[in-house]
Amino acid sequence: MDRAALIDKLRDICGEGGVFHTPSDLMVYEYDGGVDGAVETGRPVAVTLPTTTEQVAAIVKLAHAAGIPVTARGAGTGLSGGAITEEGGIIVALTRMDRIVEVDREDRTALVEPGVINLELSEATGPQGMFFAPDPSSQKACTIGGNVAENSGGPHCLKYGVTTNHILGLEVVLPDGRVVWTGGRASGAPGYDLTGALVGSEGMLGIVTKALVKLTPNPEAILVQLAAFPDIDSASQATSKIIAAGIIPAALEMMDNLCIQAVEPQYHAGYPMDAGAVLLVETDGSAEEVRAVGEEIAAICRECGATEVRIATEQGERDRLWKGRKMVLAAMGRLSPNYYLHDTVVPRSQLPATVARVAEISADSGLPIANVFHAGDGNLHPLMLFDRRKPGDTERMLEAGKEIIKFCVSVGGALSGEHGIGTEKRDYMTLVYTAEDLAAMAGLKNAFDPGGRFNPGKLFPKGYVCGEVRALRAQAIAQKHGIYAW
Ligand SMILES: Cc1cc2nc3c(=O)[nH]c(=O)nc-3n(C[C@H](O)[C@H](O)[C@H](O)COP(=O)(O)OP(=O)(O)OC[C@H]3O[C@@H](n4cnc5c(N)ncnc54)[C@H](O)[C@@H]3O)c2cc1C
Questions:
Q1: pLDDT score, position 190
Q2: What is the rounded distance in angstroms from the CA atom of residue 50 to the CA atom of residue 168?
Q3: How far is the CA of 472 from the centre of ligand 1 (A)?
Q4: How far is 456 from 177, CA to CA, in rounded Å?
Q5: Which residues form a coiled coil (predicted)?
Q6: Angle in degrees, CA 31, 254, 240, rounded to 5
Q7: Is residue 388 part of a domain?
Q8: Of 288, 305, 445, 448, which residue is most buried, by most CB within 10 angstroms?
Q9: Are 279 and 183 a contacting pair, CB within 8 Å?
Q10: Residue nearest to atom 11 of ligand 1 (CA)
């Protein structure tokens, strides 16, 4: 099928205004939130904006018949290149499927379309006493479909768990255009956990067209504490001790001095400019519980050298403290024309050693590195500051990133805590997985998508799933393990 015929057929499905195909329209979709240089860019043949599951299924069936790759896209805030069409094809942008179909107060669930914005779901259900707990810092923009595909985390996932813990069921369009439901209202359905397999699958197994999500009751009381420390090491020690004491705060976040320098003059969150690091610790529960746990946390912080522990109980104060944390990335432009952040996880006990190694890498590379953490989870986001206009800066940044990842893996860490692998980290997968592990994962991919047309090129190092350029190496692996057919 030629391009013009394809566009016509897509218009028949989505209507005149539901298909973008001019170069200037397509250019916008060449990127996600990742950094050019660290993730690939790629121009799709067309972008479709369906409004119903039936339209999504029709687009997929058309693409399936024509052998064209299909990539789902939410708000494009992903940081690992997941929504970029490196191999061309059709983008299915789900942003017009943005209805909250039903809220069930009794069962505390919501049935939503994938384009619903994360924060808007909690805003809609808040007055009914419930919220959607996974809260990525991008929650004002990112979609539930994107959250499901990346198994996103956020500050409150320390206590409440990441996205996978909040998804009961999914309506999914499979790579051949069939529409299926996985999971359901009751938990613990027998058989394979297909919902579990789909969450975090980076849009490579199916396109989510509806999600049945769990809602969490609003807590009775919330306390946010700001603890300032002379350095990042003492803040890391306090983090470890809080968790070791058996306390599970709702959120436990850390920012170093560079983050404070970026954020405070812009957002006036109230962070002390001279602190080496600050911890934001949120506790929720009954009023009594919150007060008692808050005192325990304050004592641990002081024991670890905190120079100040401030308490915010009023909503306005709490929001101000949180705004600072949530705007760290946006504020980095005050310090540097470009930044690139990695998302890795280490066992919490390894945080102090990891922070020390990041400081060494910063010194060796000559690039400042700011640190913002979901500290309670051991999830780090080192932000490397660079200027892409300066010759050599991008290369030094990429090299520094590689060193950070290698160190995290060497202390038992994981490649990504929440941003996914995409194209950004696919070549690092062999650092943590053997060829056998990857072949087993490719087996799952091929069971859903034997043609390899859903979001191709993501997650696997080149050569591990079927596809033109990868066929030889992948076939050798497949033959060796006899796991999947071609
Ligand atoms: C400032 C900033 C802060 C961030 N903070 C966090 C954070 O705290 N925690 C965190 O986890 N992430 C964070 N992120 C990363 C990003 O916001 C999340 O990964 C988010 O879930 C992506 O959602 P999206 O709608 O933008 O998806 P996109 O970027 O559009 O897509 C991401 C992936 O999901 C797939 N996808 C999208 N919709 C569907 C669907 N309906 N069905 C199947 N696959 C689909 C795409 O193919 C792609 O692989 C942050 C990003 C930014 C820019």
A1: 84
A2: 24
A3: 32
A4: 17
A5: none
A6: 125
A7: no
A8: 445
A9: no
A10: 152
Structural domains of the chain, count: 4
Determine the pLDDT at residue 174: 98
User: What angle (nearest 5°) sits at the alpha carbon of residue 447, between those of residues 446 and 452?
Assistant: 30
The one-character DSSP state at 414 is B
pLDDT per residue as tens digits for the range 44-64: 999 999 999 999 999 999 999
User: What's residue 36's pLDDT?
Assistant: 75
State how far the Cα of 381 lies from the Cα of 378, in Å rounded to an integer.
10
Are residues 114 and 58 located together in one domain of the fold? no
Counted residue by residue, the chain has a size of: 486
Q: Which residues line ligand 1 (CB under 6 A)?
A: 32-33, 71-79, 82-83, 94, 114, 136-138, 142-143, 145-147, 149-150, 152-154, 202-203, 207-208, 329, 418-419, 455
Where on the phi/psi map is residue 98: left (φ > 0), alpha (ψ -120 to 50), or beta?
Answer: alpha
Q: How many CB atoms lie within 10 A of CB 352?
A: 17
Q: Kindly give the distance from the C-alpha atom of residue 142 to the centroid of ligand 1, in angstroms, as a whole number.
A: 6
Atom index in ligand 1 nearest the CA of residue 144 equals 25
pLDDT recorded at residue 485 = 30
Domain span at 323 = 221-335
Q: What per-residue confidence (pLDDT) applies to 352?
A: 86
Predicted local distance difference test score (pLDDT) of residue 465: 60
Residue 76 is part of a domain; what is its CATH number? 3.30.43.10
pLDDT of residue 480: 47
Question: Which parts of the chain have pLDDT scores under 50?
Answer: 466-486
Looking at 169, 193, 217, the residue that finishes a domain is 217
Contact 82, 93 (CB under 8 A): no
Task: Report CA(432)–ligand 1 centroid distance (Å).
Answer: 23
Dihedral, 456, 460, 466, 472 alpha carbons, nearest 10: 130
Using the structure block, give the residue that is written with the tokens 């009961």. Answer: 168
Of 27, 58, 93, the residue that ends a domain is 93
**CATH code at 122?**
3.30.465.10
Residues 213 and 253 in one domain: no
User: Are residues 325 and 293 located together in one domain of the fold?
Assistant: yes
DSSP labels for 222-271?
A: EEEEEEEESSHHHHHHHHHHHHHTT---SEEEEEEHHHHHHHHHHH----
For the CA of 143, the nearest atom of ligand 1? 25
Tell me the best of 47, 99, 138, 327 to mutate to test the pocket of ligand 1, counting ligand atoms within 8 Å of each CB and taking the most.
138
Q: What is the pLDDT of residue 339?
A: 93
Looking at the fold, whether 123 and 187 belong to one and the same domain comes out as yes
Q: Give nearest CA residue, ligand 1 atom 5.
A: 137
Name the pairing type of β-strands 70-73 and 90-93: parallel
Distances in whole angstroms, Cα of residue 276 to Cα of each of 233, 271, 311: 9, 11, 19
Q: Is residue 446 part of a domain?
A: yes
Q: Same domain for 89 and 46? A: yes
